[in-house]
Amino acid sequence: MTSLKQLLTQEGFIQTNKLSKETKEIITSTSLPLSFQPNTQRVCSSSETSNSKSLVSPDSRREGPPMDEVAIRALISILSDYVGRYIKDSFFRKTLFVKCNSYLVRRKTSSESDNENETLVNMKHCLESIDKLVQNQGSTKKELKISFLRNSIELLTIIASLNSNSLQGATTCGIPNSHLSACGQLYMAILYKHQKNNRVCARHLMQVFCDAPFLARTYLVPEFWQHLFLPHLLHVKIWYIDEVETISDSNECDGEKEEKMKCLGRVYNNKVDIGTIMFALYYKQWLQVGTSEPSFPVVPLPTRP
């Protein structure tokens, strides 16, 4: 198995002063399948895709041996260190706050219930309070901080529940519940990082990509997605680039090319979103206590539209 240090270097994680000293020591001494292994790095053909009833191959469903606790600690450190930037880096904190806060804007003005309005107002107030807590963390009394953290987690848990199975596809004030949930999960990760509960912090960060993969990878935390997820999905991106070139070089009229490009974009984004969810669930499985090593996801190429 390739060393964790080599894999993380390939994926852009190991950069000067980006990881804690403890994380770097763990990385040096262990291994973790954060990238394709030699026997799984295979691009599936379109015919394989069309004949497949699942995105995961039978071989990839096999559970591995019990997971190495040191490797799990490495993964937890990597994920929680990223969230920790919110606490340590004022520019990162402001950027993330502006992204989430600016997104919490009503998109319809009629037929809104009082509960919908209250949910949105409470969430915006919660994010503002978390931002102030982190900025003034040294001056807040311990009792008040504990009470605030507990109440904030309860509120954000309610927000996250808006994306439950029975409410998937629903909206609040015109905002998709999945998007509200993703923002809520991201700030719960921040709260648990603030409490030094790194394992739970890491799980909430991965849930962001499960709830709203497109929003997470293109708007909320695109640079993190590029480091952790894109290496697993490069074959899909290469396929997309090739298809774009094929359409561009064709002799079809501009109108037909435009329609094909739109269709291709939808197919590509859907496949990347599905792949992102698969790998987010894969990493979440790594974070569970007392479980076996999860099967490595296989994301086949899309069928040409």
From TrEMBL:
Residues 70-302 form the Putative E3 ubiquitin-protein ligase LIN N-terminal domain. Pfam families: ARM_LIN. Residues 38-57 have a biased composition (Polar residues). Residues 38-64 are annotated as: Disordered. InterPro entries: LIN_N. PANTHER family: E3 UBIQUITIN-PROTEIN LIGASE LIN, OS04G0584500 PROTEIN. This is Putative E3 ubiquitin-protein ligase LIN N-terminal domain-containing protein.
